[in-house]
Design goal:
The structure holds two protein chains of two kinds. Chain A is of the alpha/beta class. Chain A has helices spanning 48-55, 78-83, 101-112, 118-127, 143-155, 173-188, 200-206, 224-229, 231-239, and strands spanning 8-19, 22-33, 37-41, 63-68, 71-72, 86-88, 161-165, 192-196, 209-214, 217-222. Chain A has a domain at 95-158. In chain A, helix 6 (173-188) links the parallel strand 7 and strand 8 (192-196). In chain B, strands 1-2 form a two-stranded antiparallel ribbon. In chain B, helix 7 (156-184) packs antiparallel against helix 10 and helix 11 (244-257) packs across helix 12 (263-278). Classes of the chains: A alpha/beta, B mainly alpha. At the A-B interface, helix 1, helix 2, helix 3 and helix 5 of A face helix 8, helix 9, helix 14 and helix 15 of B. The complex binds adenosine-5'-diphosphate and magnesium ion. Adenosine-5'-diphosphate (ADP) sits between chains A (19, 22, 24, 42, 44-50) and B (332, 335-337).
Chain lengths: 245, 341
């Protein structure tokens, strides 16, 4: 019921997706409260990225319902989901590689039809230390800088909900801190995030709630302290050798 | 600084057009003007291809089809219905923009080689129709005696001079329109975003279907306009206009000039056309071999074409970085292909 689910920005019910014989996402349900940061953890191949792709219509779900601010959005085209205020990043950085840093931002603003983006864009570039690179081809940036650019392209458009797929993967500790600080600051401002991440420090420190996935299923959901002590979670994460905590 | 770069581009463009308009009057001869008219038509045709394939990344191997439709429409309306050539030019472009939509629609689901094959097939259909619909198209021998643009002087030299200036003005205006759309409008940003990464473009709110159709339709219209200009300045249209060779030459000229810049392919077309005509004295096969050799050299050593020459160093650096960055995270996202469109 949309009226009752007023505090949930995003509500996922029974979402499923199979690829041939593999059930990548299996009957997943959870909710994200407005202003909260929800973490998704789980071993490699447990369906986390596929879940993001289902939420943003990069892939079409086999079953399930996704409600965004009470309205069903599953099956809407990806571009409409973006225009409704859902931003996302990809596990392997996605930026427009042959174009300048600034053009990347211009395109992000153009696609969403925003006109009030330049000031925040410059602020994010400044904060991420990319200001001197605005006219450079984004291909020439380091991996960490590319991730920051991808993030800035989303943040400057102030999305209502931001999905981050392993934002800390493959970046050096300095960039890692920059990203963690940005998320922490935005969290204090009441922004809503859904974050896939392996770095347990980050997840435990910043998330209000954690969803744990294994083999496509949600095996646990709760506040960080509870998840830390959950037997099934420990087995799932340690059993697969995913000890990168 | 950005403003000045934009200004500089348009200043160069205006300068090039002014030079093209003035230069042949140094040694005026109908033969020279005739060559330059064809060069201007090739420039427009190649620029139109670049709008679709260079900017949007939708590789068309069928632009000869649009070129032929524009030429036959203009010639046919004048020949059969005695309509004003001006109207014929516009009608040819308009019909092409519709046909462009029709070709673009199924192409929304296709990429790369498949799209190239569909467009190649389209052009082949146009060629076969032109060859076999004899009552309308004149069949294999084509159409002639359908007249030229109205109001031109009768004296041969004056005629070719004025005709050249008119064709140049229309072609330059159309190329300027393509350049404007690609560099100064939201559509131009969307085109580049689509070329770079379609999923990412959509993730940032871009309706890629609409913009692909826009690119197809505008590109086809400009190619059709080039066809109409060709018809009225050369005075003969035949089924070979739609041949794959025409499309291959467009592609070669565009690569030579530098994809995704509009002015590069236009300039590339002029230079390569003049080169192959200039080399006709060594034989009509040898000049095509030279044409092919130049394109091969450019593809291998100057992949960004004439337009990218000054950027040579930057390009090399960025390519090295691209290969490095692809190794990170590629394992997982390589399976994340698009399913929903
Ligand atoms: N587009 C796809 N086609 C086929 N199989 C896929 C596709 N995307 C993901 N998978 C499979 O689904 C499972 C979950 O993958 P993924 O969502 O990437 O996991 P995670 O992000 O948790 O590491 C894996 O077995 C993966 O191989
Ligand atoms: Mg993943």
């Amino acid at each position: 019921m949309p009226a009752e689910a007023s505090s949930a920005v995003l509500a996922v019910e029974g979402l499923s997706k199979r690829f041939g014989g593999v059930v990548a996402v299996d009957d997943c349900s959870f909710e994200i409260e407005r202003g909260s940061v929800v973490g998704i953890i789980g071993p490699n191949g447990s369906g986390k990225s596929t879940l993001f792709n289902l939420l943003t219509s990069v892939l079409r779900p086999d079953a399930g319902v996704v409600r965004y601010r009470g309205e069903r959005i599953e099956g809407l085209p990806l571009y409409q989901i973006a225009r409704q205020g859902i931003g996302r990043t990809y596990q392997s950085v996605k930026i427009f590689r042959d174009l300048s840093v600034w053009m990347n931002l211009e395109i992000a603003a153009m696609g969403r039809g925003r006109s009030d983006w330049e000031v925040p864009a410059r602020q994010w570039l400044e904060r991420f230390g990319l200001t001197h690179l605005v006219n450079d081809t984004s291909d020439t940036l380091s991996i960490g800088q590319q991730r920051l650019l991808e993030l800035a392209m989303n943040l400057a458009m102030s999305p209502d909900l931001l999905l981050l797929d392993e934002p800390l993967a493959g970046v050096n500790p300095v960039v890692r801190d920059t990203i963690a600080d940005a998320v922490a600051a935005l969290r204090r401002e009441g922004k809503t995030f859904l974050i896939i991440e392996h770095h347990m420090n980050f997840v435990m420190r910043l998330c209000d709630k954690i969803v744990v996935m294994d083999h496509g299923e949600k095996i646990a959901e709760g506040v960080p302290e509870a998840i830390r002590r959950d037997e099934r979670v420990i087995n799932a994460l340690l059993g697969k050798g995913t000890t990168r905590a | 600084m950005i403003v000045s770069r934009v200004m500089r581009r348009w200043l160069w463009f205006s300068g090039a057009v002014a030079t093209a308009a003035a230069a042949p009057f140094v040694a005026p001869h109908p033969f020279l003007f005739n060559l330059l008219i064809q060069a201007a038509v090739w420039a427009l045709l190649t620029a139109s291809w670049d709008l679709l394939s260079g900017y949007t990344g939708q590789i068309s191997f069928g632009h000869s089809g649009f070129f032929a439709i524009g030429a036959y429409t203009a010639a046919g309306l004048a020949f059969h219905l005695h309509v004003s050539p001006w109207f014929g030019l516009v009608a040819g472009a308009a019909l092409c923009s519709l046909v462009g939509l029709c070709v673009g629609f199924p192409a929304l689901r296709l990429r790369g080689h498949y799209l190239a094959l569909v467009t190649l097939g389209f052009a082949e259909i146009i060629r076969l129709v032109a060859q076999n619909w004899i009552s309308v198209t004149g069949g294999p021998f084509g159409m002639h005696d359908f007249g030229t643009l109205p109001g031109l002087p009768a004296a041969p030299l004056a005629h070719s001079e004025v005709l050249y200036l008119v064709v140049l003005a229309i072609a330059a205006a159309a190329i300027a329109l393509a350049l404007f759309v690609c560099e100064h409008t939201n559509a131009g940003k969307a085109f580049r975003a689509i070329r770079e990464d379609q999923v990412l473009a959509e993730s940032h709110g871009i309706n890629i279907k609409i913009y692909k159709l826009y690119a197809f339709s505008l590109s086809a219209a400009l190619a059709g306009l080039a066809g109409g200009l060709y018809a009225f300045s050369i005075g003969l249209v035949d089924p070979n206009l739609a041949s794959p060779l025409t499309s291959a030459m467009i592609l070669g000229m565009a690569v030579f000039g530098g994809l995704g810049t509009i002015w590069g392919p236009a300039l590339g077309a002029v230079l390569l056309f003049m080169m192959s005509e200039g080399l006709r004295f060594i034989g009509v096969v040898y000049n095509l071999i030279a044409f092919g050799a130049v394109i091969m050299v450019f593809v291998i050593f100057v992949p960004r074409g004439i337009a990218g020459l000054k950027l040579g160093r930057r390009t090399r650096i960025s390519r090295r970085d691209a290969t490095q960055s692809k190794q990170v995270g590629a394992a997982s996202d390589s399976v994340q292909q698009r399913e929903v469109t």
